[in-house]
């Protein structure tokens, strides 16, 4: 056997060489991994096990899984993926850095071109650290979020106070609903929340800017604007009952929405210099390709940002199909 043939055989069975490393194990990442695996690609999924929706009791709008807890969706998806020998999942692991290999691999070999990315991974312990190489990378890390600084807000978040109106608006019923936020897009979000409740109060917490024209337009739709500073939220066992203002007034509510600040998790990509939008989300084409060939993004980490679970899963599946064709150099109609 020639040296070249021997090297190729070694690459085929190299335990640290993958066709794709999927970073993140939410609906986008797991969907991408499943579809890539079914295309007989060797896939490694790096799962931090710290999903943003961990506080959410039930997920909605996912066909055949409406009302299923998000952690149950993740469990089912992981079990389905792990049935395939081509798939590997690293749990409670994080990616420290993704590097692009230009010339030679770490061992001095001449095969960096076949696997142009090095992914450095930390585990729960030092023994769990890995350094792997991959032909492609899918970034599906999602977002971190910062909620308004109210003492009790975490006690209600995911149970009676939510961030996604399309996901959780239906359950709000006819009771009075709060929309709490400090961002400049509060007017548009108030219009959306108004689709699900006829009694909405927008709380700016003395921070968010709403013009007089916007406040007037909301008022015409029956949406009240409260500009006073919030002291805290009231309720029990996860059920919000009132928003208490600093002057002591209590405004009764039976549910509500909050506008967090979202921060895409992309720090480990710094060396790749990928294009991002003004909010830090990765910019992709319609098929999930980022500005660097071989790196793809799906789900909340990609522009325009937060999406329903089923939309994120679809984006992951689409990216997988495109990767399969891109690796072959095949142009498709997808």
TrEMBL record:
The keyword Oxidoreductase applies. It catalyses: [thioredoxin]-dithiol + NADP(+) = [thioredoxin]-disulfide + NADPH + H(+). GO terms for molecular function: thioredoxin-disulfide reductase (NADPH) activity. Pfam families: Pyr_redox_2 (PF07992). Keywords: Flavoprotein, Oxidoreductase. Residues 18-316 form the FAD/NAD(P)-binding domain. This is Thioredoxin reductase.
């Amino acid at each position: 056997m020639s040296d070249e043939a021997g090297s190729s055989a070694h690459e085929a069975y190299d335990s640290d060489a993958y066709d794709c490393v999927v970073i993140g194990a939410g609906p986008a990442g797991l969907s991408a991994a499943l579809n890539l695996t079914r295309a007989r690609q060797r896939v490694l999924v790096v799962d931090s096990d710290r999903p943003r929706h961990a506080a959410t009791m039930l997920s909605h709008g996912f066909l055949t899984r409406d009302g299923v807890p998000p952690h149950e969706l993740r469990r089912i998806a992981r079990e389905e993926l792990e049935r395939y020998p081509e798939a590997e999942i690293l749990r409670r692991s994080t990616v420290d850095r993704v590097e692009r290999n230009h010339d030679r691999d770490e061992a001095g070999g001449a095969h960096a071109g076949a696997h142009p990315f090095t992914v450095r991974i930390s585990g729960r312990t030092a023994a769990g650290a890995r350094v792997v190489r991959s032909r492609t990378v899918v970034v599906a890390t999602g977002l971190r979020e910062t909620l308004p600084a109210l003492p009790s807000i975490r006690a209600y978040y995911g149970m009676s106070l939510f961030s996604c109106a399309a996901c959780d608006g239906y359950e709000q019923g006819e009771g009075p609903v709060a929309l709490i936020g400090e961002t400049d897009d509060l007017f548009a979000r108030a219009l959306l929340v108004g689709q699900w409740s006829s009694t909405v109060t927008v709380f700016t917490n003395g921070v968010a800017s709403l013009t007089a024209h916007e406040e007037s337009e909301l008022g015409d739709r029956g949406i009240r604007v409260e500009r006073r500073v919030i002291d805290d939220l009231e309720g029990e066992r996860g059920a919000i009952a009132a928003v208490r203002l600093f002057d002591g007034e209590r405004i009764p509510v039976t549910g509500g929405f909050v506008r967090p600040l979202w921060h895409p998790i992309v720090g480990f990509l710094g060396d790749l210099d990928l294009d991002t939008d003004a909010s830090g989300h990765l910019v992709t084409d319609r098929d999930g390709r980022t500005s660097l060939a071989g790196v793809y993004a799906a789900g909340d980490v990609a522009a325009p940002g937060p999406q329903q679970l089923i939309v994120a899963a679809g984006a992951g599946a689409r990216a997988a199909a495109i990767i399969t064709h891109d690796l072959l150099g095949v142009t498709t109609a997808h």
